[in-house]
Write a structure and sequence with these properties.
- Helix content is 50%, strand content 21%.
- By secondary structure, it is of the alpha+beta class.
- The chain is built from 13 helices and 9 strands.
- The radius of gyration is 25 Å and the shape is elongated.
- The strands form 3 sheets. Strands 3-2-1-5 form a 4-stranded antiparallel beta sheet. A 3-stranded antiparallel beta sheet has the order 4-6-9.
- Helix 1 crosses helix 3, helix 2 packs across helix 3 and helix 6 runs antiparallel to helix 8.
């Protein structure tokens, strides 16, 4: 039978499900609205889409690694309670495995979930119905080196390779890969703690540097000193800025007497060859997600009235 747009809209308003899902439900139930609602509920679609409006800012960061490569993912849930659920943790671990093969977020989202014909996105959507919260695969990344190592580090670990903050560090070298990986892991711990803005000075947004210079110049001029002195003051403050935000220029957390750059030079003696940190990735759970502020007392009062 023919399904009208008005019927699809009515079902969508009732369930919050997507238009294509509503159309499929009506087609499967010969346009019977009540049966279509039940069809969506049985599929878990109605429940999932209603929950999709709720903020998922908890969850887990997961990592997985192979030979000279590693991947990191963020999968979100609404509550920390669900993040400690074995089924959810298995999902994050499996998505990490997919990320090791496919890398970037878009490719991972569309890739097949392990042991399933469904995509990662569809599998996570299906899990909403069984786990009972809004869940979402937010992002992934991967680092690879042709020689050397890629180290992983998980902070606030809740299970193997799962936690609230994760870091990958890639180090290129022809030397001992195991020792290079051990040093890279130390750098990953540093990155977890300090959260640098960039790997090197050249990677900082030039506009951000110009803003800092403008601020430093204004501050220096307020002192009333001559321009040649002001220029030197700005250079000094800019140097200090780089020391604070650039990974290689920062004081190494495990040995503050050395910068990360100098600590790498020291590590080369153990590694047995020149080494270079080529990239890093740092995922902190929920960073950048605007969490909803809820008034629990008001919610209880509203429920009582209902």
């Amino acid at each position: 039978m023919s399904i009208s747009a008005a019927q699809v809209k009515e079902l969508r308003d009732l369930t919050g499900a997507g238009m294509m899902d509503c159309k499929a439900a009506l087609a499967e139930t010969n346009g019977d609205m009540e049966a279509a609602v039940d069809w969506l509920r049985k599929k878990g679609i109605s429940k999932a889409d209603k929950k999709a409006s709720r903020t998922a800012a908890e969850g887990l960061i997961g990592v997985d690694s192979g030979v000279r490569e590693a991947a990191i993912v963020e999968v979100n849930s609404e509550t920390d309670f669900v993040a400690r659920n074995d089924a959810f943790q298995q999902i994050v671990a499996n998505v990490s495995k997919v990320a090791l093969a496919y890398g970037k977020t878009e490719a991972v989202a569309m890739a097949k979930y392990p042991g399933s014909d469904k995509s990662v996105t569809d599998t996570i959507k299906d899990a909403v119905g069984t786990i009972g919260e809004n869940l979402s695969f937010r992002r992934s990344d991967k680092l690879t080196v042709s020689q050397g190592a890629v180290a992983t580090y998980i902070h606030n670990s809740v299970a193997d390779n799962l936690g609230k903050l994760g870091v990958l560090v890639a180090i290129e070298t022809t030397g001992d890969a195991h020792k290079a990986g051990a040093f890279a892991r130390q750098v990953a711990m540093h990155i977890a703690a300090i959260n640098p803005l960039a790997l090197s000075e050249s990677e900082i947004d030039p506009a951000a540097v110009e803003r800092e210079k403008a601020i430093f110049s204004d501050q220096a001029r307020a002192s009333g000193k001559p321009e040649n002195i002001i220029e030197k003051m700005v250079e000094g403050r800019l140097r200090k800025f780089y020391e604070e935000v650039v990974l290689l220029k920062q004081a190494f957390v495990l040995n503050p007497d050395l910068t990360v750059e100098k600590a790498l030079k020291e590590a080369e003696k153990e590694i047995g060859a020149p080494a270079k940190i080529t990239a890093y990735v740092r995922f902190a759970l929920g960073e950048g997600i605007e969490k909803e502020e809820t008034d629990f007392a008001a919610e209880v009062a509203a429920a009582a009235k209902g």
